[in-house]
Specification:
The complex is a heterodimer of chains A (120) and B (113).
Chain A lengths: L3 E4 L2 E4 L5 E7 L5 E8 L3 E8 L6 E2 L7 E3 L5 E6 L8 E8 L15 E2 L3 E5 L1
Parallel strand pairs in A: 2-11
Antiparallel strand pairs in A: 1-3, 3-8, 4-5, 4-9, 5-6, 7-8, 9-10, 9-11
Chain B lengths: L2 E3 L4 E5 L4 E3 L2 E3 L6 E6 L5 E7 L5 E3 L5 E5 L4 E6 L8 E8 L6 E3 L3 E6 L1
Parallel strand pairs in B: 2-12
Antiparallel strand pairs in B: 1-4, 3-9, 5-6, 5-10, 7-8, 8-9, 10-11, 10-12
Classes of the chains: A mainly beta (120), B mainly beta (113).
Chain lengths: 120, 113
């Protein structure tokens, strides 16, 4: 049981290049999220998805696109990378409220180990 | 808008000493509150959560937190810190459904032997 897996774990890009971060979860969670972590700012929500084929904007969506073609995968894309997108990116997943396997709502997000992206 | 403030950026304690990490939130209704811990190079792990009921909640690794509505606070405590507790700690509040969270800036804990 791997939980939430992010690839790649490290990447260096030049300004203007594009890339995709992949998040995969094996817990059959409905909800998935992409956060970015910057020093002194905690984690900020970029985009999220509440089910296969659905996506929604979070707090800081500009410059990013996402797709959820399969329930277990959530992709984060940067079409034209900028130095301001240098950050550590975390994917997370969770059950819907009140729909855990035991019928209990945990409200817990399960996080991947992060992907460190540097844009030069 | 909802927000979370963690006033202490860095805290250093001696091993065996008690610990209290502060968290203040801004939220109109009864909040869902969380504490997460991040070890170096790792993702975040849930320590404990508060939804309703008893205002003192117990978590993993010997941590507890107390919800005080009058002070809009949810401080994390541990009676005796271990060297392995050195990490970054994040307080978070639920943000309007779908389990979205708003995080504080984090408090980095260092533990001296």
């Amino acid at each position: 049981n791997a939980g939430v897996t992010q690839t790649p774990k490290f990447r260096v890009l030049k300004t203007g290049q594009s890339m995709t971060l992949l998040c995969a979860q094996d817990m059959n969670h409905e909800y998935m999220y992409w956060y970015r972590q910057d020093p002194g700012m905690g984690l900020r929500l970029i985009h999220y998805s509440v089910g296969e084929g659905t996506t929604a904007k979070g707090e800081v969506p500009d410059g990013y696109n996402v797709s959820r073609l399969k329930k277990q995968n959530f992709l984060l894309g940067l079409e034209s990378a900028a130095p301001s997108q240098t950050s550590v990116y975390f994917c997370a997943s969770s059950y819907p409220q009140g729909a855990g396997t035991s019928g209990l709502y945990t409200g817990e997000l399960f996080f991947g180990e992060g992907s460190r992206l540097t844009v030069l | 808008a909802q927000s979370v403030t963690q006033p202490d950026i860095h805290i250093t304690v001696s091993e065996g000493a008690s610990l209290e990490l502060r968290c203040n939130y801004s939220y109109g209704a009864t909040p869902y509150l969380f504490w997460y811990v991040q070890s170096p190079g790792q993702g975040l792990q849930l320590l404990l959560k508060y939804f309703s009921g008893d205002t003192l909640v117990q978590g993993i690794k010997g941590f507890e937190a107390e919800f005080k509505r009058s002070q809009s606070s949810f401080n994390l405590r541990k009676p005796s810190v271990h060297w392995s507790d050195a990490a970054e700690y994040f307080c978070a509040v639920g943000d309007g459904g779908y389990n979205k969270l708003i995080f504080g800036a984090g408090t980095r804990l260092a533990v001296h032997p």
